[in-house]
Amino acid sequence: MATIAEPHARRWRASSPTLKFIGRLIREKPLGAIGGVVFLLFLLCGIFADVLAPYGANQISPINRLKPPSLKFPFGTDNLGRDMLSRCLYGAQLSVIIGFCAAGLATLISVALGILTGYLGGKFDLITQRFVDAWQSFPDLIILIVVVSVVGPGMPQIIVTLGLLLGIAGSRIIRSAVVSVRENMYVHAAQSIGASTPRILWHHILPNVLAPIIVLFTTRVGVVILAESGLSFLGLGVPPPAPTWGGMLSGSGRTFMFQGPWLALAPGLCLTIVVYATNMFGDALRDLFDPRLRGSR
Amino acid sequence: MQAYIVRRLLALIPTMFFASLIVFVTVRLIPGDIIDMMLSQNDIAADKFSRDQLVAALGLDKPLWTQYVHWIGNILLAGDFGRSLWQNTPVSELLLARLPVTFQLGAMALIVALLVAIPIGAYSAMRQDTAGDYLGRSFSILMLAVPGFWMGTMVMVFPSIWWGWSPDVKFVAFSQAPLNNLKQMIIPAIILGTSLSAVTMRLTRTMMLEVLRQDYIRTAWAKGLPEKLVVARHALKNALIPVVTLIGLQAPLLIGGAVIMEQIFVIPGMGLLLLDAVTQRDYPIITGVFLIVGVAVMLINLLVDLSYGFLDPKVRYR
Amino acid sequence: MRMGGRRGGQGVALAAGLFSISLWLGGSAALAESDAPKYGGTLEIVTVYPTLAALSWDLADWNWKQNHDTGQVYEQLFAADLSKSVRNGGPHPFYADAWLPSDAIRGELAESWEWKNDPLRIEIKLRQGVMFPEKPGVMAARELVADDVVFSFTRLATSPKKIATYFDHIDKVYAADKHTVVFQFNAYNAEWDYRFGWGYYSGIMPKEVVDAGAGNWKNLNGTGPYLLSEVVQGNSNTYLKNPNYWDKDKVNGADYKLPFVDKITFRTIKDEATYVTALRTGKIDMLESIRWQNVDQLKKSAPALKWSKWLNMSGTFLSLRVDTKPFDDIRVRRALNMAVNKKEIVSAYYNGHAELFAYPQHPDYRGYFEPLEAMPLSVKELFEYNPEQAKKLLREAGYPNGFSFKVQVCSCNPDHMDLLPLIAAYFEQVGVKIEIQPMEYGAFLSAMTTKTNTPGYFMNNGHTNPTTTIRKSFIKGQVWNPSQYDDPEYEKKMNAVYLERDETKRQAMLKEMTREILDKAPYVWLPTPHVFTAWWPWVKNYDGELRAGAVRPGPIYARIWVDQELKKKMGY
Question: Tens digit of pLDDT for each residue in C269-298?
């Protein structure tokens, strides 16, 4: 009986760190946990938008224009008669794509740059840091404005540009984490027995900077969504009729502010809630991961 | 320490050259160059003869490399950033007029951010995971989560309907009428500052949490010192670090301008200058703005790094 | 002081209303007195181009907007005769962006003019005693003379930015004497006064300003009612009254020296919500361009505002490249026109605030415009929603399953970004799919000027005037011809129009040419929206007039007076 029970018990114990963590999250950081749930909901809405949305994203029907929220159109309709609920769901999809891709790209760049410069140090680090300095001297929005003028408005351009900008800026955070880990005993030990650099990076450095990486990624999603909305306001975001939340809020949301406040409320609330949630979630993660932030109580 | 400063300043030079070269070339690559734009202002098509005349008149017919050397040389030797291709105004004049405006807005926003963030951050650290902590942090993050342009629009439109009041659209320089100037700038500064406060608040909180765990704090408590004294004397000193860090992080904003706020509140700052120049393909202005922003931010960051040495003696310079 | 002003203002406004009613009842004498213009005050204006600042101050730059910013300073030979405005009992509202009806042109700097033959020339006698003010560092005060006109013209004609062939009809220009200018023609051109007279590039600049640097706004100095005192680039232009201005205006039978207002400021505001709010709270006095979406709320929250409504001086259309397949086939172009429910666009998209048919000729062009009812059936059916007929035509042309094509549009225009998907939805019903390619402004414009635009090109284009509206879009090689329309016969007709001296004959020719081009449908013709202008009641002697020349509001602003007492009474 014991032999049958053991693997079972082992499996349960093996998965418990994650569950334990989630338990801690809910207990110690309830707001962050709620943020996490919203974050998950957001992801699901984005992935399953096609299934969830009652109408198309661009289903124009002038006869239904500017209708207030009702059973038929829970979030009302816009000035072309398109269902706002569906548009917001597809907007979630776009935000998931843009947010996760840009944040993912940014994190990749941050990690690569941060680990390499942090671990290798020396001249390579010095030169790269000067490059990062130069890059960070330019305001994000301004670089975006120039880039969009060069290559034209569109989703891939925004993803790549935001990814690059945030990636290079975030590399500093990863780098400082790597620097603090680099001096650890086990790293020295690995080096002294002649372990190769890639092995050290992968097995020793990376796992120990996983925490800031995760936090960086989560908060970056919110930053990207906000940045796209700012670009939309300036006319440089993903162009209509793409139903991005920022585009809807800055465009028809503002134009029809008085004829149909739901045109602004729907995407605006979605945007705010999701960004708020990702921030609270990211903060909670940061608190839980970092023993220094455990506090004195 | 001095060696460090010198090394950093020297490192600045190649970086700026590199950056300026990139900016110069990128701007030239923008499709729809200025010649087409100028010609299209007329209502009869211009034939090739007129186009060539125009190209020569703007000095755009020389090879790219010559143009670059000419431009850099003028800046370094004569402080001449060139002239606007459209209005022939010296770019340095425009930069001189706009920079203080943007700087003022940025500085005011920074002060607002600090005023909001440091109390909240400190309180959050001391009363971690209490209702007060959540309330404070929630407020700060909410300010971040609502897009700036939306806050700006709300603040602009609704008071006008409810009370018949709106911010001024007439910009007066601080030197001319300080009170009116502040009245106009305070609102975008508050909006900008509160959305910046989230970042500062986190930094303050992190620093405070770390400090509060330190042994010497425990000792102070154990000795029975009142909490306020402990906080003020020991912990808050370290709060200057996030302040300084914030300045460094937001330096691009201070210099580069908050384009969105400038647009909504009609403030003639660097952000709008650049936006207009990019739309009109006014190359000298674009490259001039980039250069100034880049250099200024780098200098600010240098000062920030140096000040760490004074604030945190644990920081060592290799 | 403004915080309580709204509620306080309402009470005061009511009192003011009762007061003025009692005045009115009191007798016409009292009314006439309160209508007498007073001098002084300031005007804050957000103009008909609210987001566009001055691009250039030098007239030799050939920039289309220069009259808008310099037209209060630099005067022209001719300008609108504002006594013929609707406000004064005449037939003309003066909304047109670059057209003056031939019966509403007065001599501004020109006092009289006479055509002579052998050689064909026009002798223009200038007004005497018109002075350039003193400008320290630039010039001393002096009288305007014929040489100034010759100088301005020559400078324009030899500018590197000049429009080719623009002045080809003029052999030479010379000063016959101190106050007489002669333009000698080699052939008559029907646009002669538009091209140099009251047109886009007709301002008279003194040589001294050019010597000091014509592109520098600080050097601007002209004979006009205002002097340019300050420019904050991209933000505002401020003009101060010229105390020695020569012109007078008749108001209620009495002559008054112009201008009335001491200071005028143009505010360039990029954000629509901001400038509408500024009008609502009285921070600006006049807002010349308001979209229909803002009107109801403005009327509710600022009921004292006065309004005018006009038809946009710009046609909206989807251009189809007639030099590519499938748009070389007229059936396809006509089919696309019939596939769009244009009436629904007027009623649903513009909420009724649009005209179905107003391009290429504008309804304001009296004598040139023919309404849709007067058009032949083949033109009328292009404006009837008929998807069945559209599908039939497409089948005949060999596209039974439809086709797809790319459409470029400027992401800078939020209206177009919204309207184009609606058009796309209509097209899909007849099997035609479009791929929308949004472009940033510079790139968008460049695609057209370099003739590399995609088969579909969605834009709007100013009407300018009855001849130019046809010439600039439907003649080969023109910049504003995205459809690449090229018909030698049509070009011949255009040239004939220019040579025709009799306006009635020209009108007939243009009417025929308009019918032809409508029929040929190189564009999907789309409705033209209405635009609104609003101003506070203390802005007097003004009824929403927009231009007194080519994009030139200067003479209109010079005649406005501000009732400062009324403004104070209302709480502003």
Answer: 999 999 999 999 999 999 999 999 999 999
Contact B170 C265 (CB under 8 A): yes
Nearest 5 degrees, angle CA C88-CA C89-CA C93? 75
Residue partners of C437: CB distance under 8 A and separation at least 6: C406, C407, C408, C409, C454
Interface predicted TM-score of the whole assembly (ipTM), two decimals: 0.83
Of C54, C161, C468, the CB nearest to B38: C161
Dihedral angle computed from the Cα positions of residues C269, C273, C275 and C280, in that order, rounded to the nearest 10 degrees: -170
**In which region does residue A218 sit, left (phi positive, over 0), alpha (psi from -120 to 50) or beta (all else)?**
alpha
Give the tens place of pLDDT for each residue, C365-389.
989 999 999 999 999 999 999 999 9
Do A236 and C411 make contact, defined as CB atoms within 8 angstroms? Answer: yes
Phi and psi angles of residue B252, each rounded to the nearest 5 degrees, phi first = -55, -35
* CA nearest to B53 within chain C: C160
Q: What is the DSSP string of A39-76?
A: HHHHHHHHHTHHHH-SS-TT---GGGTTPPS-SSSTT-
How does DSSP classify residue C133? Answer: P
| Cα A151 off chain centre by | 24
Contacts of C345 (CB under 8 A, 6+ apart): C354, C419, C422, C526, C527
* Among A131-135, A263-267, C194-198, the least confident range: A131-135
Q: DSSP 3-state assignment of C433?
A: strand
Residue C315 token pair: 């046609």
Calculated CA dihedral for residues A228, A229, A235, A239, nearest 10 degrees: 70
pLDDT tens-place string over residues B201-213: 877 787 777 777 7
Interface test with B, best of A25, A138, A226 (most B CBs within 10 A): A138
Nearest in space to C223 (alpha carbons), one of C319, C135, C321, C158:
C135
The token pair that represents A65 in the structure block: 């224009």
What residues of C are in contact with residue A239 (Cβ under 8 Å)?
411, 417, 436, 438
> Between B129, B149, B278, which is nearest A250 by CB?
B149
- Residue C66 corresponds to which amino acid? Q
Residue pairs spanning A and C at CB distance below 8 A = 66
Three-state DSSP class for residue B218? helix
- Sequence-distant (6+) residues with CB within 8 A of B177 are none
Give the per-residue SS3 of A146-177. HHHHHHCCCHHHHHHHHHHHHHHHHHHHHHHH
Over C452-464, what HEC string results?
CCCCEEEEEEECC
- Report the chain C residue with the minimal C-alpha distance to residue A243: C418
Nearest CA among A163, A229, C279 for reference residue B260: A229
SS3 content of chain C, % helix, strand, coil (to 5): 35, 20, 40
Q: CB–CB of C439 and A259 under 8 A?
A: no
Cα separation of C273 and C370, whole Å?
37
What's the number of CA atoms in the CB half-sphere (13 Å) around residue C564?
9
Asked if B94's CB is within 8 angstroms of C301's CB, the reply is no
List the Cα angle C89/C91/C92 in 5-degree steps.
Answer: 110
Give Cα B107 distance to the centre of its chain.
9
pTM greater than 0.90: no
A297: chain B residues, CB-CB within 8 Å: 128
Q: How far is B152 from chain C (nearest CA, A)?
A: 9
- Residue of chain A minimizing CA distance to C346: A62
* Burial degree of C395 (CB within 10 A; 0-12, 13-18, 19+): middle
Residue B128 to residue A280, Cβ atoms within 8 A: no
The pLDDT tens digits of the residues spanning B135-159 come to 888 888 888 899 989 999 999 999 9
pLDDT-based confidence at A121, cuts 50/70/90? confident
